[in-house]
């Protein structure tokens, strides 16, 4: 689904199986964020093809955090595709998240990651993104802010009228509140969460942040 030039969203809408939303940023270095479960990734590839985009041309994958429903499909890409995640989440993939993957009958894909994201500006081809460290749902979660387009790819930190759960390994409700408070200060026109619907419009997004902070924290 095209949102605007060079930005495409592929939301997961099935209620029969959990998976995340995937975002594609086109450009000199085509970027995919949070590819989701490996056995469900064909759906993303098919929807990209309908938009005239070839998943085989993806050059970089950036993951907001290391839960299986967001990163498992990195195994579908070869070494020529750079895979990035925060160092904190990489360390958890090697330790605390093992049970999450074992419960799903798979192994942690930690070995596929070679790029460790740190907070700050990252230039990828002709795109400039801000990496924002947002612990809470996951200890090393990050969001990606495309300031030029006022777009926030926020993983499971914040949803439409909801927040990411904090009862999984490494979750922390206090840190999540701090992360959401920080994100609420950004100038955002498009809020792209890891699950559920996109939130569009500055006023609607501001109202969403206020409602969440009032209700959950």
Tell me briefly what this model is.
With 217 residues, the protein is of the alpha/beta class. 24% of the residues lie in helices and 26% in strands. The protein has a single domain, classed as Metallo-beta-lactamase, Chain A.
What does this 3D model show about the protein?
This protein has 6 helices and 15 strands. It has 217 residues and is an alpha/beta fold. The protein has a single domain (2-216), classed as Ribonuclease Z/Hydroxyacylglutathione hydrolase-like (Metallo-beta-lactamase, Chain A, 4-Layer Sandwich). The longest helix is centred in the C-terminal third of the chain and has 15 residues, at 202-216. The relative contact order is 0.14.
Main β sheet profile: 7 strands, mixed
Helix residue percentage:
10-25%
Q: Which structural category fits the helices and strands? A: alpha/beta
Strand content: 25-35%
Main β-sheet, spatial strand arrangement: 1-2-3-4-5-6-7
Quickly name the level 1 CATH class.
Alpha Beta
Rg result: 16 Å
Tell me the number of strands: 15
Question: What topology does this entry show?
Answer:
Elements: E1 2-4, E2 7-10, E3 22-25, E4 31-33, H1 41-50, E5 60-62, H2 68-71, E6 82-86, H3 87-93, H4 98-103, E7 115-117, E8 120-124, E9 127-133, E10 142-146, E11 151-155, E12 158-159, E13 162-163, H5 173-183, E14 190-193, E15 199-200, H6 202-216
Parallel strand pairs: 4-5, 5-6, 6-7, 11-14
Antiparallel strand pairs: 1-2, 2-3, 3-4, 8-9, 9-10, 10-11, 12-13, 14-15
Labels describing this entry:
26% strand; 6 helices; 217 residues; 24% helix; alpha/beta; 6-stranded mixed beta sheet; 7-stranded mixed beta sheet; Metallo-beta-lactamase, Chain A; 15 strands
């Amino acid at each position: 689904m095209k949102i605007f030039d060079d930005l495409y969203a592929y939301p997961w809408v099935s209620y029969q199986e959990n998976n995340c939303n995937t975002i594609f940023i086109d450009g000199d270095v085509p970027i995919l964020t949070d590819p989701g479960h490996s056995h469900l990734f064909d759906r993303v590839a098919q929807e990209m093809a309908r938009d005239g985009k070839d998943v085989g041309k993806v050059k970089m994958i950036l993951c907001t955090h290391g839960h299986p429903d967001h990163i498992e499909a990195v195994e579908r890409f070869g070494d020529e595709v750079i895979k990035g995640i925060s160092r904190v989440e990489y360390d958890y993939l090697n330790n605390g998240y093992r049970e999450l993957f074992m419960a799903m009958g798979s192994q942690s894909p930690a070995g596929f990651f070679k790029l460790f994201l740190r907070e700050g500006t990252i230039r990828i081809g002709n795109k400039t993104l801000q990496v924002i460290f947002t612990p809470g749902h996951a200890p090393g979660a990050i969001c990606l802010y495309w300031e030029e387009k006022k777009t926030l790819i926020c993983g499971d930190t914040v949803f439409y009228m909801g927040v990411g759960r904090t009862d999984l390994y490494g979750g922390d409700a206090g840190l999540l509140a701090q992360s959401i408070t920080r994100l609420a200060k950004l100038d955002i026109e498009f809020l792209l969460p890891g699950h559920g619907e996109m939130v569009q419009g500055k006023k609607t997004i501001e109202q969403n942040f206020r409602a969440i902070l009032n209700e959950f924290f």
